[in-house]
Every structure is written in C-alpha cells, then in structure tokens.
Design brief:
Helix content is 23%, strand content 30%. It has 5 helices and 13 strands. The radius of gyration is 18 Å and the shape is globular.
C-alpha cells in the first residue's frame, strides 16, 4: 500500500528526526570503536530483483504475505552482503554482528535515514526513538519483495510436506551448522549466518544473527551527495552506546 499524500507531507517535515545518530560508514571502515575490535565479513550475494526491500526476522515474520516493503526503492541487482562484526573478546563473549549492509553504488553515504513502510505514526516519534523491525528468533534478513513471495511459497509447501515439523529445527538448523563448518570465523558452532538460495529459484536470501538477540532494530537508507539511495544498513548494535555503557558498569 502506497503512503498517502498526508503521510508523505509529515515524513518530509520530520525527516531530521529520522536521521541515524551515528555515522554508519565507520562500522565498515574502522577497525576499532569504543575499544572494541571490528572486522567486516562478506557473506555472499543478496538478490534484489525489484528494488522493493523489507527487513524481517525470517522465522517469525517473513512468512506473512501481508508484510510490506519500505516505500522507497533501491536499484535492482545483486549485491554483496557485508557484516560489521564486533570481534570476540578476552572475556569470552562471542562475535556480535553490529550491522549488515548492502551497497548499491560505489559512492560514500553522506546521510543515513530510517527506512519506513509508509504507515508509521511519525507524529508520535520522540527524540532518540526509532520504528525499526522486531526480532523474536535472534535472526534478521534483507529481502526483496519478489523473494518474500518465493519465501512464503517455500514455507507453505514445506509445512504441507512436513506437518507438525519445526522450520528451524528440521530444516534451517542443519544449513546453519554447515555454514559454520565451511566458514567458522565469527560464527558459533550452530551457525550465525546463512546465504540461502531459495529452493526452486535463483535468488539468494542472506540470513544472519541479530547482534544481541531478540529486540527491535532500526534500518537505514544511506544517501549519497546527490540525494540518491546508495546503500541500506541494518543496525543491530549502537557500538559506542552499548560498549561505553558496559565500561561504565564495570
């Protein structure tokens, strides 16, 4: 459903509130933030055949055909899926995925602004608040609208063939474990990311751990100097906020 003219007018007026409070470029160019060592990991292609994108927890929300993409669109194509990783630390914490990015053009983003569907109540948005998406299974995915429909078709058919089964335990768990065996760096033994080709299609849908687990997380469009969308970033961890607070508690 396209946003109304009234909503678009509100959006134009409130865009300053939708800006990301940190420069997400640093997540992919810096080797250290807030005392934490960072790495960037390429987890393979993400198919974007229509440019209409939604970011969802694949196990809890993506199989709902009513889920809608963001009202703005990206250039269609296939793009590398880059993960900004907070490296494991000496205290025993595992690798944490701070952000996941698709770059649509080889130009820097000069502004990051929250991606919206077009029906959010922008008038109620307070300072330092965001809309984001919900995670209830510890996973996220960047999904084109066409892949969304293919995913729903796959899930419907899988449950018909496996009544009473569990999609993660009886299907995805083995694939995640195999991902770990093939690419163990920055993954736990059960697997923390998967570049999944939807069966019966040519489309790649990357699935990845959501930083600190379940919660609500913002998604940002990156704009270049000309005001064109040049990337999309899922932010799971505000690194400075999270780890500076951790230091203060210590």
């Amino acid at each position: 459903m396209a946003p109304t003219n009234e909503w678009l007018s509100q959006w134009e007026q409130k865009r300053e509130k939708l800006k990301c409070p940190v420069d997400l470029n640093n997540y992919f160019t810096s080797t250290e933030i807030a005392g934490k060592q960072l790495a960037v990991m390429d987890i393979g292609p993400c198919s974007v055949p229509t440019g209409q994108i939604l970011v969802r927890d694949p196990l809890c929300y993506l199989a709902n055909r009513e889920e809608q993409p963001y009202f703005q669109t990206a250039p269609a194509g296939s793009y590398r899926t880059e993960v900004s990783v907070v490296k494991p630390d000496e205290d025993g914490d595992c690798a944490r995925y701070a952000a996941v990015r698709l770059k649509f053009a080889d130009v820097p983003a000069v502004r990051f602004e929250e991606a919206l569907i077009g029906h959010e109540d922008i008038s109620s948005l307070g300072d330092e608040e965001f809309f984001g998406f919900n995670v209830d299974a510890g996973l996220g995915s960047i999904c084109d609208k066409r892949l969304h429909q293919a995913f729903c078709d796959f899930v419907d058919q899988w449950y018909k063939e496996h009544p009473g089964a569990n999609l993660y335990d009886d299907y995805f768990a083995a694939l995640f474990a195999e991902s770990f065996r093939q690419h163990p760096e920055y993954q736990r033994s059960g697997g923390d990311w998967l570049n999944w080709q939807i069966p019966g299609t040519k489309y790649h849908l990357p699935i990845f751990q959501s930083g600190f687990g379940d919660g609500a997380y913002p998604v940002y469009w990156g704009y270049d100097e000309a005001g064109e969308i040049c990337q999309i970033v899922v932010q799971f961890i505000d690194i400075e906020l999270a780890y500076n607070e951790e230091d203060e508690e210590d």
